[in-house]
Amino acid sequence: MKGIKLLDRRFEEVFLFLSMVAIVGLIFYQVVSRYVFNDSITWSEELARYIHIWQVWLGASFAIRMNQHIKVEVFRDLFNRTIRKVIDCIALFLWFFLAGVLAFYGTQLVLNLLGTGQLTPAMRIPIWIAYAAIPVGGILMCVRLIQQMILLFRPNTLEEGTS
Amino acid sequence: NDSSGEAKTSKDSYEIRVAHLVNEKQSTHVALEDFKKAVEERTDGKVSVTLYPNGSLYASDREAIEAVQLGNLEMTVPAVAPLANFNSKFMVFDLPFLFDSRDAAHSALDGELGQQLLTELEQNDLKGLVFGENGFRNMSNNEAPIEEPSDLDGLKFRTMSNPVHTASFNAWGANASPLAFGELYTALQQGTYDAMESPISLYYTQKFYEVQDYLTKTGHFYAATVMLTNNDYFNNLPEDIQSVIQEEAENWRANQREIAAKQDAEWLKSLQDEGMKVNELSDEQKQVFMEESQSVYDKFSDEIGQNLIDMAKDAN
Amino acid sequence: MTILLLFGTLLLCILLGVPIAISLGLSAIFTILFATDFSLTIVAQRAFTSLDSFPLLAIPFFMLAGILMGKGGVSKKLLDLASSLVGFLVGGLAMVTVVSCMFFSAISGSGPATVAAIGSFMIPEMKARNYGKGFAAAITAASGSIGVIIPPSIPFVLYGVVGSVSVGSMFLAGIIPGIILGLSLMIVSFAISKKHNYVAAQEKVSFLEVLRKVWDAKWALLIPIIILGGIYGSIFTPTEAAVVAVVYAIIIGVFVHKELKLKDLYQCFVEASIINGATMIIIGLSISFAYLMTLEQVPMKMADFLTGVSSNQLIILLIINIFLLIVGAFIDTISALVVLTPILLPVVTNVGVDPLHFGVILVTNLAIGFVTPPLGVNLFVASGISGVRIETIAKAIVPIFIMLVFSLLVITYVPSFSTFLPEYFMGG
Ligand code: NA
Ligand code: NA
Fold first, then answer.
1. Which residues of chain A make contact with B178, given a CB cutoff of 8 A?
2. What does the pLDDT look like over C157-187, one tens digit per residue?
């Protein structure tokens, strides 16, 4: 139980922190290297971009837990508690469908790229490693959305997300 | 792996969406308009062709090639450089001073070398129809005319994000690094970069003459383009339509190269009118550059395949 | 038909309370499924390629730098400086709020972050001094909008990327319009304060005292100099500038102000990442929506429509302003920028509007959208930190909104306010 709680709270979080530190380090090193060592690195921007894409999709998943996605709630707020729950439930289902599309078609895309062997322009590593952020983000979102669904019906089992 | 292609065999109308990056004035697009007209006429409107220039549908060649590969786009006309990420044989075009002249390039691309490369693409789910061109790439900078590699010493040189290109410029002594194309104009204006290289057409259409003083006709890279479709999609078209498309692709090639040559001459003159100082390299001067790039050939010849390099060189 | 499906699904999803980013993605998915023969791999591909851009990386780091500076104790110093400058005027606390938001804007790239950083001090303070609680929250929410006009600015970065306009030039273009918006908010604060008899916050202070406050706030005031000076001195790109600002903010927070502990750093990094995730997926998903619009040739139809109504630049800009104010009420800034920039930019450049000037018009409209319900992110933040109901703030914001629209018209019809600085410093 404690393990699950730790996973719930920290799984994406630790990755988000480390990746942010990595990008800051990478770009700062790029600036320093240009002025201090007079040497331009050709792969740092590409690596930073790919880490960032991973960060975005994992961050989007964690943002579900932390209730940070931007939405319009005035219409839903017009209704009483029961109807509101129904609307929230439909919204979560729709969202789950999108996350499922990203997970499924993202996987297809990655398998396709594995087959065709495309490489990244600067580092010349397989590009599917970067693309895998999409299906992984989609799967994590699915998990977080199922969790939200459970929270919707049993509001006291887990503490409310805060930022 | 592409199911949409198979479903289409029985259809009586076909839509070919062509997405590319260049603007409406450039030869690739101008010739595509004739291609569109001819294909639609010759198939009695059974095939309709829609053009999406300026990167309006796909913002980069890499993305558009990938979309064709996935079967989400019927056709694109990318520069060959990004194809090297899909198939390393295409790195042959990244080598400096590969072709001496346009004619040599054309005869290699329309002959055995070209055919071999186009066949290569089928492994990548792509069907290459013909090679067009963006022309030779030339160098420019804000310091002085370039005559020998030492003139590049210490220049902050913008190259494409391509290891062979960066290696070539570093071999000639430049401080080369890639930069997003969208940031290039400002970077040159502000002096973050001193120098760049591109085909003549881009100097004119993107107004680089405003931020670069010296243009040297080095012709260090030959920038081919290739008309690409999805392999399954093409093979599942009725045979009569396939042959119309193949023939009109060849007409497009002739037409595009002719317009490109005319535009290059015209725009080079416009660049001079705008105040760019233009110089040309003599054969001896080119020879010096070529010798100083031997390390690049040595480094990449295994990956590309020596026989492809020889085939290209034999066309000169 | 396709367009109807696209917009119908979008509207329905938004009304159901599905996040905007997800609504855009879903409408693209349903349209692809039911109106085209494409595979949904397009959505997955675009979710990647739309974010594969180095200039976009400026966005998370301008967010992070703002958060670090906010937690590192600079908000208080900026407030003190603002008080010494305008605290003696009628409606002193409201004036101080506007001016400190302007200062904080030069550090933060985000509107809501600016509201949070300044509002958490100023709204309680104003309430304690008997300011109307609606007005207190409303003026803070509106001042926060300046966060995206005075550089650095997240929407300007995005507009630069989507519209192929130099981000550095956009930053310069925003300075004067940002000051105009600030002045107009001071004017409206003055009028409202006069009416309700909100008095000055303090005595007028000596020039020497002002200088002392400037000195106290020096570490914060250096940030805009580092960012703008770095970009215009061609020392680094906007993305690199954002990262340098982050490193600087860490050094100041940890070693100079000593208010940031290692644990705070961890929290700031995570907080920025979460907001970044929620923001960036809007880009990742709205680009599929924009793709379907291009495929349906909406940009061309829109251009034909607008130029059919009039070929007069002034009238076209007026129509676009009205349209954007309506869009800004319902849609967040990021999605509106991704979807509308490719549609509107070619139309206005065709009638001779400078892309830099249009960027300022577009972002100013959307910045006003930060404070218009139903979707007004600054309203939400102001309500969150003050406990004042959205409805109460929305009522109080009406005169402020009118003043903002007036400034928008000034910015729209005097292009040189936007183009002067970029032309002066960057030659265009
Ligand atoms: Na700002
Ligand atoms: Na709004």
1. 42, 45, 122
2. 999 989 888 898 999 999 999 999 999 999 9
C161 close to C57: Cβ distance less than 8 angstroms: no
In sequence order, the 6+-apart residues with CB closer than 8 A to the CB of A110 are A128, A131, A132, A134, A135
Query: Given CB atoms, is A45 within the 8 Å cutoff of chain C?
Result: yes
Q: Which of C64, C274, C375 sits opposite A63 (nearest CB)?
A: C274
Could you tell me if A153 lies within 8 Å of chain C, comparing CB atoms? no
CB-based contact B95:B164 (threshold 8 Å): yes
Minimal C-alpha gap between A118 and chain B (Å): 4
Residue A160 has a pLDDT of 43
pLDDT, tens digit, 9 for 90 and up, residues A8-17: 888 889 999 9
Distance from CA of A144 to the nearest CA of B (A): 30
Number of neighbouring beta carbons within 10 Å of residue B112: 13
In chain B, which residue's Cα lies nearest the Cα of C165?
Answer: B182
8 Å CB contact of B163 and A116: no
Report pLDDT for A144: 95
Measured in Å, how far apart are chain A's first and last C-alpha atoms?
Answer: 23
Quote the CA–CA distance of A31 and A24 in Å, as a whole number.
11
Cα–Cα–Cα angle for C129, C131, C137, rounded to 5 degrees: 120
**What DSSP assignment string belongs to A26-72?**
HHHHHHHHHHTS----SSHHHHHHHHHHHHHHHHHHHHHHTT-----
Q: Where does residue C320 rank: exposed (0-12), middle (13-18), buried (19+ CB within 10 A)?
A: buried
Strands B195-199 and B214-230: unpaired
Choose from C29, C237, C426 for mutation: most chain B CBs within 10 A: C237
CB crowding A93-104: b at 16 or more within 10 Å, else e: ebbbbbbebbbb
Residue closest to C147 by CA, chosen among C112, C180, C186:
C112
Q: What is the mean pLDDT of chain B?
A: 91
- pTM more than 0.95: no
Q: What is the ipTM of this complex?
A: 0.87
Contact residues, chain A, for B175 at CB < 8 Å: 38, 40
Q: Which of A40, A42, A120 sits opposite B85 (nearest CB)?
A: A120
Say what the pLDDT of residue B8 is.
45
% residues pLDDT > 70 (chain A) = 92
**Residue B28, burial from CB neighbour count under 10 angstroms (0-12, 13-18, 19+):** buried
- Inter-residue contact A36 to C44 (CB < 8 Å): no
CA atoms in the 13 A half-sphere facing the CB of A132: 8
- Report the run of H or E that residue B217 belongs to, with start and end: strand B214-230
Give yes or no for C404 touching A (CB within 8 A): no
**C138-161: pLDDT as tens digits:** 999 999 999 999 999 999 999 998
Q: Which residues of C touch A75 (CB under 8 A)?
A: 15-17, 374
DSSP string, C322-341: HHHHHHHHHS-HHHHHHHHH
Return the sign of the alpha-carbon dihedral for residues C221, C223, C229, C232: negative
Question: In this predicted structure, what is the pLDDT of residue C311?
Answer: 84
- Per domain, the residue ranges of chain C are 39-426
Q: What is the mean pLDDT of residues C240-261?
A: 92
Question: How far apart (Å, rounded) are the C-alpha atoms in residues A85 and C81?
Answer: 48
What is the distance in angstroms between the Cα of B28 and the nearest Cα belonging to chain A? Answer: 24
Torsion of CA B247, B252, B254, B260, to 10 degrees: -170
Any idea which residue has 């550090």 for tokens? Answer: C107
Region class of C73: left (phi > 0), else alpha (psi between -120 and 50), else beta: left
Q: Which chain B residues contact residue A124 at CB under 8 A?
A: 85, 163
Report whether C20 contacts C280 (CB < 8 A): no
pLDDT in tens, C116-131: 989 999 999 999 989 9
Residues of chain B contacting A116 with CB distance shorter than 8 Å: 69, 86, 124-125
